[in-house]
Design brief:
The structure holds 2 protein chains of 2 kinds.
Chain A lengths: L3 H24 L14 H4 L12 E5 L19 H15 L3 E2 L21 E5 L3 E6 L5 E5 L18 E7 L2 E7 L7 E3 L2 E2 L5 E9 L4 E9 L7 E10 L12 H4 L3 H4 L3 E2 L1
Chain B lengths: L2 E2 L12 H5 L13 E11 L6 E7 L5 E7 L3 H4 L14 E8 L7 E7 L5 E3 L21
The chains are: A alpha+beta, B mainly beta.
């Protein structure tokens, strides 16, 4: 026979276990509010929404044309915070000495947004009513852009990432993507210019050229690294003849890359 | 094996260099210079994001060195005639590359001359790989 205290303890333990069992699926799903639907839930996809102005499903490659460089270089007259200026000065010094400054991508760290968008690798994009997936062939880096009206995750519980957390919405013929919740380090916007956990990126995406070109205007702010807002526009062209493959940065491969292994890398 | 260093700027039609190496910095490579080495193939790795070729070179002091040459991805190599079996371990080859500024053995791959005399280079723009409007020489970490 169990005593009363044993029964109470047993019931309590069972309830705690049940609570964790029920909560577990939500804990693993972007900290969505209880009861909310995942982006691929049929009931979520089926909700009535205005038709999207365009569908960017396809494979896209940055490059081509004038004024379309792959770097997210700061604008003329830019001003960095003292913390970021230290990195920038060190990068300038390294470059003058023929060295590479903290090339974390070369050490297998993720490129992160926005840099991942302009690697010389195609990006497969899949558009659903509730979500857009962008998978760069380079390291198969994944961006998830939620289109189902959810807000950004509370920064206090968000699991920060290199591509950040993207929330999208339609504004007439433009897809507006708002991205926050970035990691605080090993994430570079350009040479010697760090992105911090205060980085905020707004992309205004338009489909032009009869659906064959994506134009994205970037607005970058990061009060921990620079003053004001940096704006730039990049273009991608549709590459229908390309698929993406599995691409990984592996230690045993990287050790044979002279550029990443040279002593002329400033860590 | 004979090692030949070709000093000075040798312009090679390598307009794909920017696309081949743009995913990480090659600022520690002297892209204005060319280096040629002869040796025995130790390994040839057919892989993403980069293939690589390692050869054993006997330097001017008679000491064997391992040289790694960083290549582009198979997607760019295939249109230039490459296969995973194009280079085999044990073969004597001649490799042209871009040297590291530090003088360490190794560099960026330009071309290889096989025992048959066939020359394989890299990076003819394949489908979907028209050259981007990137600086010719990636100069900074990205």
């Amino acid at each position: 026979m169990l005593g009363k205290s044993q029964i109470v303890r047993s019931v309590t333990v069972s309830l705690i276990a049940l609570t964790f069992a029920v909560a577990a699926p939500n804990l693993s799903a972007q900290f969505q509010p209880p009861g909310s639907l995942g982006a691929l839930a049929p009931a979520n996809i089926a909700k009535p929404r205005p038709a999207a102005p365009f569908n960017l499903t396809g494979t896209w490659l940055h490059g081509g044309g004038t004024n379309n460089g792959f770097r997210f270089s700061p604008p003329a007259g830019f001003k960095l915070t003292p913390e970021a200026q230290v990195h920038y000065n060190a990068a300038q010094k390294a470059q003058a000495e023929g060295k590479v400054y903290r090339d974390d991508i070369g050490q297998c760290w993720p490129a992160g947004l926005p840099v991942i968008m302009t690697r010389v690798w195609p990006i497969a994009m899949v558009q659903m009513p509730t979500v857009i997936y962008m998978i760069s062939e380079f390291m198969n880096s994944l961006r998830i852009i939620y289109m189902d009206g959810r807000p950004h995750t509370d920064p206090d519980i968000a699991v920060r990432s290199f591509n950040g957390e993207s929330i999208g919405r339609w504004e007439k013929d433009t897809l507006v993507i708002d991205t926050t919740n970035f990691v605080p380090d090993h994430h570079w916007i350009d040479s010697g210019i760090p992105g911090s956990d205060a980085l905020h990126i707004v992309e205004r995406v338009q489909m032009i050229d009869n659906g064959n070109t994506l134009s994205i205007e970037y607005a970058l702010t990061d009060p921990k690294s620079w003053e004001g807002e940096w704006k730039m526009t990049k273009r991608w062209r549709r590459v229908d003849e390309r698929d993406i493959a599995e691409v990984s940065c592996l230690p045993d491969l990287n050790e044979h890359m002279p550029t990443t292994q040279s002593k002329n890398n400033v860590r | 094996m004979k090692r030949m260093l070709v000093a000075g700027s040798v312009v090679v039609a390598l307009c794909i260099a920017s696309s081949a190496y743009a995913h990480h910095s090659a600022a520690n490579v002297d892209t204005t210079k060319s280096i040629t080495v002869e040796g025995i193939v130790k390994q040839f790795k057919w892989a993403n994001p980069h293939s690589w070729l390692q050869i054993e070179v006997v330097n001017s002091k008679g000491v064997a060195e391992l040289w790694d040459f960083e290549m582009t991805s198979p997607a760019l190599l295939v249109p230039s005639g490459w296969k995973a079996t194009s280079v085999k371990a044990g073969e004597k080859v001649k490799v042209v590359g871009r040297p590291l500024k530090s003088g360490e053995p190794g560099g960026l791959f330009v071309s290889v001359t096989l025992p048959s005399g066939q020359v394989l280079s890299q990076g003819g723009p394949g489908p979907g790989y028209a050259a981007p409007t990137a600086p010719a020489t990636p100069a900074t970490p990205r």
